[in-house]
Amino acid sequence: MSFSTFMVFLLTTAIVVLSPGATAIAIASQGAANGGRRAFAGVVGIASANAVYFMLSATGIASLLIASNFLFSVIKWAGVAYLVWLGLNALFSSAGAIRVQGKRRSSSLHKLFAHGFVVEAANPKALMYFAAILPQFLDPSLPILPQVLIMSATTFLIDLTAYSVYAGLGARMMRGGLKPWVVGLINKTAGTALLYLAYRMASITARVAPR
Questions:
Q1: Per-domain residue ranges of the chain
Q2: Which residues touch 19 (CB under 8 Å, ≥6 apart)?
Q3: What Rg do the C-alpha atoms of the chain give, in angstroms?
Q4: CA-CA distance, 38 to 45, in Å (whole number)?
Q5: Which of 4, 39, 51, 74 sits most deeply, having the most CB atoms within 10 A of its CB?
């Protein structure tokens, strides 16, 4: 895949992962209750669930995109609408990006992993991302498998990094070291970036393999 396409994919994935959502809240809660290091087991669970979604979505949808400009357009505009919804929700929602409650308690690493996997597997944000956004970065005129492997590995690393940050923020919030305005800044920055990405995605055109 081209370097420019990869960089747009990298930026889009990083911002979507970092945007507020159920998974961020869940992993921040794990960090608050178990500490940032133990919560890494939950982070791995989240990344593993996304890896499964990634491979299923990329291999299944790519073959359809090769033959259908119309399908590409439907997926593209669904992705644009999804990013706009995420952006507006981050900008105007009254709920904080990370809000944790409860006493500090220690759970087993296996339980933390399972909880992270289940939360992400049932997360509509994950479903929408892999179904509506990911396929737009696949170039059907080039071998599909290398593109899928590159983006899958990149997504896995982004998940590990981003959700580790949320786990650390949760642990810090439990200690009273994170100010409310920081949470608000996270929301506003993510919301603005998501709206910009929606604008960029609207300009993407279909790439159909030559016959």
A1: 38-97+109-202
A2: 86, 90, 190, 191, 194
A3: 18
A4: 12
A5: 39
How many residues belong to the chain?
Answer: 211
List CB contacts of 52: < 8 A, sequence separation 6 or more: 121
Rounded to an integer, what distance in angstroms lies between the CA atom of residue 4 and that of residue 27? 32
pLDDT tens track for 145-196: 888 888 889 989 999 999 999 888 878 877 765 566 666 676 677 678 778 7
Of 66 and 108, which is predicted with more confidence? 108
Structure tokens belonging to residue 21: 């959502």
- Could you tell me the two tokens for 157? 């690393």
Residue with tokens 């290398």: 146
User: Residue 39's closest CA among 21, 51, 24, 27?
Assistant: 27
The three-state DSSP-derived secondary structure of 8-48 is HHHHHHHHHHHCCCHHHHHHHHHHHHHCCCCCHHHHHHHHH
pLDDT in tens, 18-70: 876 667 777 887 887 788 888 899 999 999 988 887 777 766 655 555 456 67
pTM for this predicted structure: 0.67
Q: Residue 67: how many CB atoms within 10 A of its CB? A: 13
Q: Provide the b/e sequence for 30-44 (b: ≥16 CB within 10 Å).
A: bbbbbbbebbbbbbb
- Rounded Cα distance between 161 and 156, Å, is 9
